[in-house]
Amino acid sequence: MKKLMISAAMAGISAVALAGLYGDTPNALHAWAVHDMNRPNPAKVTPADKPGQPPSDAIVLFDGTQKSFEENWVDGKGNKTKWKFVDGTMESVRSAGNICSRREFGDVQLHVEWQAPVKVQGYGQGRGNSGVFVLGGMYEVQVLDSYETNPADMKNPNYADGQAGAVYGQNPPLVNPTRKPGEWQAYDIVFHQPVFEGNKCVHPGSLTVFLNGVLVQDHWEVEGPTWHMRRTRQEKPRSTKGSIQFQDHGNPVHFRNVWVREIPSRWANTTHGTYLANEKDVAAQRRATAEKLFAKIDKSKCDAQQVHQILEVMSYCGEEPFLGAAKNICGGYLRKLESWKGSELDGRKNEIRSIRGAYDTLNRNGIAKDCPLNAKVRETCKAKGWR
Residue 358 is inside which H or E element, if any? Predict the structure, then answer.
């Protein structure tokens, strides 16, 4: 691609042509062209200096200080939590209930680090048990000392959908990458909530989970709220936002370095993509882009620049007033082209070839094939032997 762009620049193709008519044009399911320079760029985020630390757009819920513990965390009723602040960590306390973030979230990227007790006690679900809940407690990623839950010797037997990295009661982790008890473990979780139209679930929620940098849940589509011993069905959440929660299961599990990034729904982009696009939304976005570009054109002129600009507009929307302006601008340039002879025509070689390149992009996408200027630039280039 880099070579193509360099050769295009050397050939004298204008930046307007390269930017606007380069990749395949917008269509009924895509509001933007391939490599579209008009497509909005994402916001710049500064990553952390060290892996696991919060990037610049993260919301830090616990940074190891008592202040963040007291300001950001409460019990299930919104009162002061009975969990302990211990050596820069949050420690669960038996019978204290879940600890909940004051702030509520919908779709998120969540980072949390946890530590099962150094002293190993119990078996299976009784060993270092807790959980990470999203959306106010509806969906749980299990926290557990699963280090010795190893098929090779199974020193600590447990059910697969209840060990560390499991979507509790629904899906076991792909692998078991847990560290020894007492060592810090890290979850990186991407959660998308289900989408409902009325009471009908049209898109199930999903969980993608990395445990200690290893993928353990690969976009698992949740089947409903996670429960002990019960298989559930899709249930419309009470709200589109809920607290992040860590479970009190009777074991002194520690948590630290908790931060989230609010992210858009996977289903929010209805203007671009084969599977998610809504044709009405796509058409509206295409017309809006066409109007924005159209406003920049000096319509009193019909030089090569205006031809490129109006052809770019037509790639988004071929309706009026764009169509009428295209006929006027391209018609005006056509009259000029027909008048150029000899050295004057030869001096316009790169300019004419660049217009042909713009038409090439449009034509392969079924646009402007019958435009008289399209036929004339091709005829001229063929007669002159201009490739």
Answer: helix 349-364
How many Å is the maximal CA-CA distance in the chain? 94
Q: Is the dihedral of CA 344, 345, 347, 348 positive or negative?
A: positive
- Name the token pair of 216: 């353990």
What residue ranges in the chain does DSSP mark as E strands?
Answer: 59-62, 73-74, 84-86, 89-91, 99-105, 108-115, 130-134, 139-143, 185-192, 195-197, 200-203, 206-211, 214-221, 242-246, 254-262
Half-sphere exposure of 77 (CA within 13 A, CB side): 5
**What are the boundaries of each domain within the chain?**
2-31+271-384, 59-262
The label of the residue with tokens 């009193």 reads: 300
Rounded CA separation 189/203 (Å): 19
Q: Using alpha carbons, select from 248, 261, 91 the residue that is nearest to residue 191.
A: 261
93 Cα distance to chain centroid: 37
Q: What does the block give as tokens for 144?
A: 């557990």
CA distance 68 to 51: 21
User: What pLDDT is recorded for position 3?
Assistant: 46
> Is the model's pLDDT at 316 over the cut of 70?
yes
Cβ-contact 222, 207 below 8 angstroms: yes
Output the CA angle 217-218-224, nearest 5 degrees: 70
**Predicted confidence (pLDDT) per residue in 111-155, tens digit:** 999 999 988 888 888 888 999 999 999 999 999 999 999 898 889
CATH code assigned to 59-262: 2.60.120.560
Amino acid, res. 51: P
Sequence letter at residue 203: H
Q: Do the Cβ atoms of 168 and 131 come closer than 8 Å?
A: yes
Q: Which amino acid is at 379?
A: E
pLDDT for 1 equals 47
Averaged confidence pLDDT in the chain: 93
pTM of the shown model? 0.88
**Residue 168 falls in which region: left (phi positive, over 0), alpha (psi -120 to 50) or beta:** beta
